[in-house]
Each structure stands twice: as C-alpha cells, then as structure tokens.
Amino acid sequence: TLAAALFPDMPSPAFHGSFTQLLVGAMGSPAASSASGPSPPSPFPVPPGLSRTALLGSPSLFSPTGNFEMSHRQALAQVTAQAVHSQYTIVNQADYPLPFSSTTSAFTSQHVNSSANITSTEETPTPPSLTGNSNFKPNEVSQGFQTSALTVDKPADDGYNWRKYGQKAVKGGEYPRSYYKCTQAGCPVKKKVERSACGEITQIIYRGQHNHQRPPKRRSKDGGSLLDEVDDFHENGDTLNRSEQGSQDHSAKFEVSNDGITVPSMSKRAEGDDQSSGSSDSEEKACDEAGADNGDGGSTNAKKRHVPAPAQR
DNA sequence: AGCCTTTGACCAGCG
DNA sequence: TCGCTGGTCAAAGGC
Q: Which residue ranges have biased composition labelled Polar residues (predicted)?
C-alpha cells in the first residue's frame, strides 16, 4: 500500500490499517494528489472560506513506546514534502514528546486530507494538542471559525481552555500570530497560532504539557455541540489513548464529506452552516474574493477600543 | 462577576 | 552597543 511505501517502518499491521486510512484521506486532498504527480492548484472543490486549509494530525502516528517516533518523523518529512499545498501546519514544538498512540491515526487522516504541513520539533513531548485529543480535531478548528465575535481568534479548541494573552504580527506582518495559555491553574501549556492574512489558521505550535485532565465542557456557545461530539468520542472510543497522562489523551474525530474525503469540520461549516456566522465568515469570504486584503488576521474584528494607556510598566 | 480578547508596551535573545 | 524580532504583560473593555 501507499502507506507501507511511505512509511516502511510502520510498526504493526494494525497500525498500517489505520494509517492507511490516513493516507486515504490524504489521497482525496490536493496534497495527496500532488503526491502522485504534479497537480493543479486545487483539483477539488474547496468550501469558500475554508480553502484548502487542513490539519494534519501526525501525532497519532506515534506509538506509546516511542519506537515509532522516528518513523513518524520520516513520515512527516515525506508527507510534508508532498503536501505542497498545505496551508495548515501543526508544529510540535520542543517540550513535546511524541508518544502518540496509533489509535489516533484516524484523526490524522482527516487532517492530512487537505494537505498540511506538520512540523515536529525536537524533544516534542506530547503536545496536548497533537496527541492528546490531538487536540487538534477538525471540530476544534471549526470551532475556531465559528465562534462568536468575542472569540473570533480562538484557535482550534482541543478541549482545554485557552486564554489569549497576546498577538503579534511576525515576519513582516505576513502572519499574525496569537499566543494562548491554558487557563488551568498551574498548567504551563501555551500555544501559538498563526493565521494567514485571510484568517485561516496556518500553524499551531504547542509548547508544554498539560498537567491536568481535560476540563469538562463549559462554554456551550463556542461550538458547544461540536465539542460535545468530540467529548463523546473521547469518552467512548478513545479512552484507551489517555492511558498515562491526562495530558496525553489522544483522540480523533473527523467527518467524512460527501466525496468520501475526510474533512475537518470547519469545511463542514463552510459548506452550508451559517448559523454561527461571525466575522470570520465574511473574513474568509473576503479572503476568497478580495484575496489577502483584510490582512491582520486575528485582529480583523474591528473592535476599536482600549485607548493606549499611559506607560504600563 | 468572572472570564476572555484586544493591543501597545515592555523585555529578552540574537546578530 | 544597537536594532530587530519574538514572546509576554497587563489595562481596558466586551460578553
């Protein structure tokens, strides 16, 4: 199989199976198509606003033992190389081990589908997001896009509660980067979320490891239903992944589009859900229609306030 | 009331 | 030492 070809050192047949799933998802994506040869920009319909953005949850490829870590990295390298179109990058930044359980591979599949970039940095311990709940569930992403005006910039929600503590335009302002901290008292986890000028999440970098269990859902307004689904998923079928540390519960939930392509739920939303259309909606639209015009990503919600206070420190 | 986002300023690392 | 850049702080305001 292609999976085997790409990831020769795949541990077990079982894993092969799940990983294949992953690839299958990938095959339906531009990234995948690019893997089998040059392909035009976007061979398949992309929901407005979502554009070819996708997540690639690689963590799921890892085995708890860590043996697979290397192969995963290799895999990453290869997939990344192939996912030329990828716009979504999940970075496993230092501090994260990669003890991902194979069961999460399903999760990976969906993300791969639309081409993505995965960047694993050294000593990646378990990024709560990547592995645990892989934090990176499409649903979460969608959530990020569908949140109310208040949380326009909320990144993929991984089940943990985050507080944004800063935003900065890096690299010449090309990518506004948002900084989030886990709101759990004493939890050192932080994450950086980069968005394209269109407001699309292009990269998420986790740092640190959650030292607590995922908190129970509490905010239903930001994508509550989706999250609930995710939670159910966690509780029902993915519990085995949470083996050791609560911070490493791996879970994956993805949705399959009509094409049989796994799609992050955000695309789902883009396809017709506008019940929670927020600024992000028009934002993305603007992106499609006018290109990266509204720049400034996260700060797009033109809320003018906060008069520069006198010297703060 | 509590939590969260926004955003300019501050701080530290690096070349 | 200086300037640049990325990361963080914290006041103000919104929900």
A: 130-150, 238-249
